[in-house]
């Protein structure tokens, strides 16, 4: 039996590349296996859901969902750690990872499938992965089918003509906030990557490879682009920083994005699911928002609340969350 882990994933999946970067940082022996028809039988042998990433352990156990994958492996392989010893930073890192996974995915998916140039470019890459061995005609047919299917799914992440200004303003705002923060350090929490980096980076890595958001990033955010490249194969360059050093540029990110947009959206989404609504409307800042509820996110919101409850007694954490507008959504 091989001693390597196997990662079934896609270069176009933010959650797949997130897991791959984690493996590279930890130095865990692994094989990267792009999901394609050629490996479908092996994939189905271990997968409970038709989603990447799928990690197959050396003893033949399949694990899915990027956060549980990383958390399970971190428990077994704690060094070098991606979790700060400071419990305040550990929780904020988990919160930022959740923000990246769930809200950051809106930026990535919106730009990728809302704009025709991005949709066709991405559909071409997917079609080549799926059908490349069958020739140009098969690729062209698959490209059209992929583009039609995925543009039809924009509503699942809340992307529409109505929400486009909010999504794109958030994307540009986070680039400004991260540019200021990353100008002073290689990773979000200091000298080494954390869960926060992995969650945000996966979405921004994908955005950087697409025509429209990639052009925005290259034109405005050199420090962010350097971090995007650094996180492909991350390496520790120093310790995590204390909160006092991180706060001047991290508080604005927590305040404007996490407490100002992500958590209010999360609460509205949760309430809609509790009411069994097919759609919901809310206000994010001064802008209206409407979409189909995302059921998976209600579970991940419950999980981040569970983590907050476990950390609530940590000195200083509640004050930070209250200052940034996050507390009222987490302490329920």
Give a description of the structure.
This protein has 14 helices and six strands. The strands form two sheets. A four-stranded mixed beta sheet has the order 2-1-3-4, with helices on one face. It has a two-stranded antiparallel sheet with strand order 5-6. It is globular. The chain folds into three domains: 5-76, Glutaredoxin (3-Layer(aba) Sandwich); 87-112 and 157-330, no CATH class; 113-156, no CATH class. The model has no long low-confidence stretch (mean pLDDT 96). Helix 1 (14-26) packs parallel to helix 3 (66-76), helix 1 crosses helix 8 (195-209) and helix 5 crosses helix 6. Helix content is 61%, strand content 8%. It is of the alpha+beta class. Strand 5 and strand 6 (287-291) form a beta hairpin.
Task: List the topology elements.
Layout: E1 5-9, H1 14-26, E2 30-34, H2 40-46, E3 54-56, E4 62-64, H3 66-76, H4 87-114, H5 116-131, H6 136-151, H7 164-182, H8 195-209, H9 211-220, H10 222-230, H11 243-274, E5 280-284, E6 287-291, H12 295-311, H13 317-323, H14 327-330
Parallel strand pairs: 1-2
Antiparallel strand pairs: 1-3, 3-4, 5-6
Number of helices: 14
Strand order of the largest sheet: 2-1-3-4
Give the DSSP E fraction (strand runs of 2 or more residues): 5-15%
Poorly predicted residue ranges:
none
Report the major sheet.
Answer: 4 strands, mixed
Which sequence of SSEs, written as H and E, runs from N to C?
EHEHEEHHHHHHHHHEEHHH
- What sort of overall outline do the alpha carbons produce when their principal axes are compared? globular
Write down the domain tally: 3
Tell me how many strands there are: 6
Q: Compute the CA-based radius of gyration.
A: 20 Å
Mean pLDDT across every amino acid position = 96
Query: Which structural category fits the helices and strands?
Result: alpha+beta
Q: State the end-to-end distance.
A: 47 Å
* Helical residues, percent: 55-70%
